[in-house]
């Protein structure tokens, strides 16, 4: 039998070792290249992911800011329409320095919710319909201090005080600052000053007249105060405002109240009161309603509203 040759380990020659080392170096380099390509690709993906996250966060931030801005604007509109109310009364800084202030009571201590001695606001009247002057109570100037709204009208009484040391002449300016759906075209504003009423209305535009000229205002007369009148309680006033509208004419006197037109489209009136002495007070009551007898009391003004601001400043000083 032949014998298998023995495996004899022959030493590597220098040339063989060099070739093996060169091959090993190439394998290592190739492996490193593969790892480098993988790392670069992974770095690119990481960069893309990071950029995508940055873009998403930026878009989310912009969306959040936009939502917050919209909510803020809605809050501002809601605040204007509900918190301020239909009427704001304001004493300017010059008048305040002279000692002029306002309050809901004759003692000068009550200012209403969120009010103060230099700014107050009346409560809103919601879901009103048109009425007429003849249906209004004769005692609106006597009922209560502050807000005493009726079913379809705003009524607010307040006091202007001179707490200073000198006699002053002050200017009283009532402005229509917002009117939706032209509601101010048919509204009436009655102002009592120390018990004497005046009524103001926007001049008609002649929409229903045959010649296109403004229609004349209706004739109205001062109302007679009942001999047995008793001031109602706050609860009675609130309950009466929830009752159906009174549609019976209230007794009047023979003294006519001449309705005065607005000074211009936005200024209801601007009058000067002379000689308010230190420690003295003027009482005001304002009543606002939509007059059903006005030719421009049309369906198009439904759900409209009127916002008023009443400014007080010292004569010859800017508002």
Overview of this structure, please?
This protein has three helices and 14 strands. It is of the alpha+beta class and 319 residues long. Strands 2, 4, 5, 7, 8, 11 and 13 form a seven-stranded mixed β-sheet that branches. Strands 3-1-14-6-12 form a five-stranded mixed β-sheet. Strands 9-10 form a two-stranded antiparallel ribbon. Strand 7 (187-193) and strand 8 form a beta hairpin. The longest helix has 70 residues, at 14-83. The radius of gyration is 41 Å and the shape is elongated.
Attribute tags:
26% helix; 319 residues; alpha+beta; elongated; 3 helices; 14 strands; seven-stranded mixed β-sheet; five-stranded mixed β-sheet; 29% strand
How would you summarize this macromolecular structure in one to three sentences?
The protein has helices at residues 14-83, 93-97, 234-241; strands at residues 87-91, 100-103, 119-121, 146-147, 154-162, 168-180, 187-193, 196-201, 220-223, 252-257, 260-261, 267-276, 281-290, 305-314. By secondary structure, the protein is an alpha+beta fold.
Topology:
Blueprint: H1 14-83, E1 87-91, H2 93-97, E2 100-103, E3 119-121, E4 146-147, E5 154-162, E6 168-180, E7 187-193, E8 196-201, E9 220-223, H3 234-241, E10 252-257, E11 260-261, E12 267-276, E13 281-290, E14 305-314
Parallel strand pairs: 1-14, 8-11
Antiparallel strand pairs: 1-3, 2-5, 4-5, 5-13, 6-12, 6-14, 7-8, 7-13, 9-10
The rounded distance between the terminal residues' Cα atoms is 132 Å
Radius of gyration: 41 Å
Shape: elongated
Find the count of extended strands (DSSP E, 2+ residues). Answer: 14
Query: Could you tell me the mean pLDDT?
Result: 84
Percentage of residues in strands:
25-35%
Q: What helical percentage do the residues reach?
A: 25-40%
